[in-house]
Amino acid sequence: xxxxxxxxxxxxxxxxxxxxxxxxxxxxxxxxxxxxxxxxxxxxxxxxxxxxxxxxxxxxxxxxxxxxxxxxxxxxxxxxxxx
Amino acid sequence: xxxxxxxxxxxxxxxxxxxxxxxxxxxxxxxxxxxxxxxxxxxxxxxxxxxxxxxxxxxxxxxxxxxxxxxxxxxxxxxxxxx
Lengths: 83, 83
Prior knowledge:
The structure is a homodimer of 83-residue chains. By secondary structure, the first copy, chain A, is mainly α. Chain A is 67% helix and 0% strand.
């Protein structure tokens, strides 16, 4: 399932996580400690190299203090941008 | 990770998928065919019994014609409802 579209969406999600993290002045290590996810997982995720489950997303939104809806704000699958 | 909070969020997500599906007058079979996910997966998901990845969510939002942000509209982790 790792086609161009989904990778692109995962990259957008990664950038969004990094944006929200930096907005809160958190390092990757701080977000790791807050979420219970490893620092390397956070690093991979921010580079669009992970395909997280909803339960992993829940750890992130709780650590970042946003809703799932807000986490996906502005994250649009490539196909939906084109059509 | 299947604690009460995350299960509850997965149940909310399941109800949301079912709502969006019915709003489009799609059966579980029709959504299955449109998304490429099995009918039993859709059924489990709508009952909050699955913990989908972002790539699975992408298949659903493309089939339902919504964004990821819209998919999570109104889905709020239990902890965030309480606090």
